[in-house]
Amino acid sequence: MAEISRQADAVHRTRTPLSRQRVLSAAVALADEGGVDALSMRKLAQELGVVPMALYKHVAHKNELLDGMIDVLVGEIDPPVADTDWKTAVRLRVLSARRMLLRHPWASGIIEARMKARAAPTPAVLAYLDSMIGIFRAGGFSVGLVHHAMHVMGSRLLGFSQELFDDAPGREPDPDAPPPEEMAARYPHIAELASAVAHDAGSVVGSGCDDQYEFEFALDLTLDGLARLLP
Amino acid sequence: MAEISRQADAVHRTRTPLSRQRVLSAAVALADEGGVDALSMRKLAQELGVVPMALYKHVAHKNELLDGMIDVLVGEIDPPVADTDWKTAVRLRVLSARRMLLRHPWASGIIEARMKARAAPTPAVLAYLDSMIGIFRAGGFSVGLVHHAMHVMGSRLLGFSQELFDDAPGREPDPDAPPPEEMAARYPHIAELASAVAHDAGSVVGSGCDDQYEFEFALDLTLDGLARLLP
DNA sequence: ACCTGAACACCGTTCAAGT
DNA sequence: ACCTGAACACCGTTCAAGT
């Protein structure tokens, strides 16, 4: 059913000419639908009712497509709120970035992949970082201190949650995983923590973690730590 | 030349029978050499002087290969130091994890990819986390507090530096990047920070960032923040 | 029963042929 | 000059044929 309407869309879109903006929007939509693995030049072209090579008129190669997508996403982050202290301004903006990231769960993957390829930040990311540095500077941070602050915040500035593992529910239990009692014997501290958190959560099924709460907890601990460095 | 000795290795290894351990070691070595992009089932088989399908006797599929590699890497992290306070113990272990990560720069990529695929942590990672939780518990953290602590530490527990972009030197300047003066006009706060850091670094060419210093700065700020939560 | 070559269904991108 | 189909060099994995 989704298949049929997508086909119709593709046929319809054949009329309107391709543009970089339309290519990027379609790429974001495609990744939103099926994850970043579902995003290939060939599938994107099909979605747009166009031959694969036609895309190369608007993006030089796939990496440039990914760059453009990142800029689209960073453009979705709210601008800084004026007339507040630095801590509130940073906090609100980071939480806005996090909402963007939750809307596009695949985004952190391509941003990190880009970073690991040692590519320079995209213009939109540079503008975002520049604005963030500006907030710290206006809040009284020296240049040296804001440098450390940017490193401390790291990818959390863009709303990354930097979990070590995803404990969200909905994971199908591994059929050949050891039984719970054996797990508890082998990893007693994890078991203690997991049972306490599960009990604590009450109605929440599966993982008892409130990811939003934990994110804000870590963010506030970090911001408070930075505030303590101010003269 | 490296090509020739690798070929000789491959021929020699044909004699000794394949084992899961040998497959994993060769995979780690291959990734160390050429990055994770250079690691394919086909190239790995060639390196081992074996037909690609022979690998599937020892790993069910590529994801299981990656899992095995992660366990090899986590096994390289030093065991916890006994007879110290929790903060020192955590600090030393995280710094050991970071040294492992610096030896294998591709490791964070596959660990994060695994996490994003919502796969359960590997046994070695579970054991590592269990041991870390144990250190916090012995240090007087309640179950609830250690839960928050694990979220706050996040992937930094494994030595991840969670930078937003890699400012290391050695990046070839983008030929169609805007000239420095235009960059400075467009991103004034980044320019101010960059010039101050570069001046500060003295002899260091390119990026003036001391990544190790910044990592420890962020780690200590986090640990101090956690210490302040203890009763 | 074990091993393995060919084949399948993809991928990003090049390039030459068609308009 | 523009557009595009076929082709190239890969990839992980299936499967049937060979020993």
Report on the structure:
The structure is a homodimer of 231-residue chains. The first copy, chain A, is an all-alpha fold and 231 residues long. Chain A has 11 helices and no strands. Chain A has 2 domains: 59 residues, Orthogonal Bundle (Arc Repressor Mutant, subunit A); 156 residues, no CATH class. In chain A, α5 runs antiparallel to α7 and α9 crosses α10. The N and C termini of chain A lie far apart (62 Å). At the A-B interface, α6, α7, α8, α10 and α11 of A face α6, α7, α8, α10 and α11 of B. The structure holds a DNA duplex (19 and 19 nucleotides). Chains A, B: InterPro entries: Homeodomain-like_sf, HTH-type_TetR-like_transc_reg, HTH_TetR, Repressor_TetR_C, Tet_transcr_reg_TetR, Tet_transcr_reg_TetR-rel_C_sf.
